[in-house]
Write a sequence for this structure.
């Protein structure tokens, strides 16, 4: 079907339905509820809405030395799909996802983050969760710039939250290579709820090296913020996490995983983007709470047809360009991971490419096949329907300078981190922890500024965990199995099997890396930047909130402080 005529048809339909065009506050008072939507979330048409492109955030002023930005967190209403009523959302500058920062290496950004949210939270808060007990106010936020090397005071530590009517001034030095960074809320005990409400956005850091690569830009450089959301029949967000058995948690209570029913790309459900037969650059972020995506580009009509794959290239990891672009058929992204991609639609004139996903939920789903969780086989479509607008048809992949990575020979210390579920008497997860410690336990990791260490994450659970460190970009060294009996009886990490190096598309600067069940992931970290307090955690937001996050301390360089 011609997507254009279909879209116009639906626009006409939408225009004749008052509930879609009259904002709620203008509707007759006294009815107490929204007019019935034309569709329910389960019956909407796919691929009728165009992919939104988040607006670029304009600085309020440029002082001599920095760009100054003002970013307000606000509640607002907007439909996530043209056949659904407006959804109440939280967003930066009233947008979901938030506006995109476009900053330049070496030019600092100063951001006034203002909390202008209402006093009532969109979701019920589980008071049992660490840091969320009353009298802690329900609505509190603190923004974190994920992947950046930032002073501790501006890092957005979880306990540095602030309440409606207050603001903070954070500064970002932008002293690191060009990369796809992102910003999101990080408030202690409710990050999962605040991010789910909409508080996340992209932060694109550019530099001269990047400009020299002459990558597709402007209309051909497209951000893809991948998330999942569940809506009720009134189009309102539903947050209902599940236990391991797939059973939903009682309303308002924490459970270890949350997999929503609808794919949302750049804030739109099942959108489409008409493209030209030419190369595009995609900045892909997995911004979901718990869901992993194993992405592929499919020319087949539906998920049950024999797939017909379009290969693509990855040119950048979390923290910048890779030394060598890699050709891929599939791209696995855990929560918070990013990929810089080149997709060439040349020669696909008239075809439709579907951005598809075959990652199980939970990932990798060894413990049980879970019919309670939507699989989200498809996310969005690219009809190759626009004429080629001229310019280069032939595109040669860039040869970026090798990324700055730590040197394994420098690693003096190795630290081990056991990832473990803490279960109740019925075998349900009460919390997930690192070295059996919670966020409040005293700091155990003190690293010296400028030093290099090996950190090993040992996964005793059935889920893969995307582990993330603030402040740094690290290098993945290897993955290997371990002997669970030795760990249980003697507390020893005994490696077994053959070590496996990073995947080809993981060779580069990383700030988040997947630890598979039964694996030890070893990363090499150089603690460059600033002394002070930072955190590391699992980026499944349900895990991060309870209680898979720990503080660490970077001590000033110089002689090792004497221990007492
Ligand atoms: Cu994406 Cu601690 O953050
Ligand atoms: Cu981070
Ligand atoms: Cu986890």
């Amino acid at each position: 079907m011609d997507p254009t005529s279909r879209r116009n048809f639906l626009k006409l339909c939408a225009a004749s339905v008052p509930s879609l065009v009259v904002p709620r506050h203008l509707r007759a008072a006294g009815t107490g509820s929204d007019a019935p939507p034309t569709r329910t979330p389960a019956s909407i048409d796919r691929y009728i809405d165009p992919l939104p492109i988040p607006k670029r955030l304009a600085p309020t002023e440029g002082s001599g030395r920095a760009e100054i930005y003002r970013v307000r967190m606000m509640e607002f209403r907007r439909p996530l799909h043209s056949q659904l009523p407006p959804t109440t959302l939280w967003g930066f500058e009233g947008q979901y996802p938030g506006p995109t920062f476009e900053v330049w290496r070496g030019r600092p950004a100063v951001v006034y983050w203002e909390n202008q949210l209402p006093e009532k939270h969109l979701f019920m808060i589980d008071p049992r969760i660490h840091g969320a007990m009353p009298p802690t106010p329900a609505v509190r936020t603190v923004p974190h710039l994920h992947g950046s090397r930032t002073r501790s005071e501006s890092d957005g530590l979880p306990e540095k939250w602030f309440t409606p009517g207050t603001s903070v001034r954070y500064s970002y030095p932008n002293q690191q290579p060009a990369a796809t960074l992102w910003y999101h809320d990080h408030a202690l005990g409710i990050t999962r709820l605040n991010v789910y409400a909409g508080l996340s956005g992209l932060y694109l850091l550019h530099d001269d090296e990047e400009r020299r690569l002459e990558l597709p830009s402007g209309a051909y450089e497209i951000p893809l913020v991948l998330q999942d959301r569940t809506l009720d029949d009134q189009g309102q967000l539903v947050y209902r996490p599940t236990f391991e058995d797939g059973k939903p948690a009682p309303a308002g209570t924490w459970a270890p995983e949350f997999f929503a029913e609808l794919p949302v790309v750049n804030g739109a459900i099942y959108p489409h983007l008409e493209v030209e037969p030419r190369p595009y650059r995609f900045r892909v972020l997995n911004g979901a709470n718990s869901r992993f995506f194993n992405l592929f580009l499919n020319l087949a009509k539906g998920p049950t047809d024999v797939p017909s794959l379009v290969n693509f290239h990855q040119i950048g990891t979390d923290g910048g360009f890779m030394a060598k672009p890699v050709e891929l058929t599939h791209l696995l992204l855990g929560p918070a991971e990013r990929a810089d991609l080149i997709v060439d639609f040349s020669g696909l004139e008239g075809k439709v490419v579907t951005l598809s996903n075959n990652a199980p939920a939970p990932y990798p789903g060894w413990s049980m096949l879970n019919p309670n969780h939507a699989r989200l086989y498809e996310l969005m479509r690219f009809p190759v329907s626009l004429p080629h607008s001229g310019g280069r048809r032939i595109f040669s992949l860039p040869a970026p300078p090798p990324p700055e990575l730590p040197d394994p020979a420098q690693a003096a210390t190795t630290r081990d981190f056991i990832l473990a579920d803490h279960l109740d008497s019925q075998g349900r997860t009460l919390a997930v922890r690192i070295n059996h410690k919670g966020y409040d336990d005293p700091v155990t990791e003190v690293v010296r500024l400028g030093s290099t260490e090996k950190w090993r994450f040992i996964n005793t659970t059935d889920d893969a965990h995307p582990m993330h460190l603030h402040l740094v970009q690290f290098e993945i060294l290897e993955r290997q199995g371990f002997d669970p009996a030795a760990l249980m009886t003697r507390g020893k990490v005994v490696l077994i099997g053959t070590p496996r190096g990073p995947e080809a598309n993981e060779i580069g600067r990383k700030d988040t890396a997947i630890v598979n069940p039964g694996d030890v992931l070893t990363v090499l970290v150089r603690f460059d930047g600033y002394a002070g307090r930072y955190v590391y955690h699992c980026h499944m937001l349900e895990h991060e909130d309870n209680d898979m996050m720990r503080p660490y301390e970077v001590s000033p360089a110089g002689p090792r402080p004497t221990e007492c």
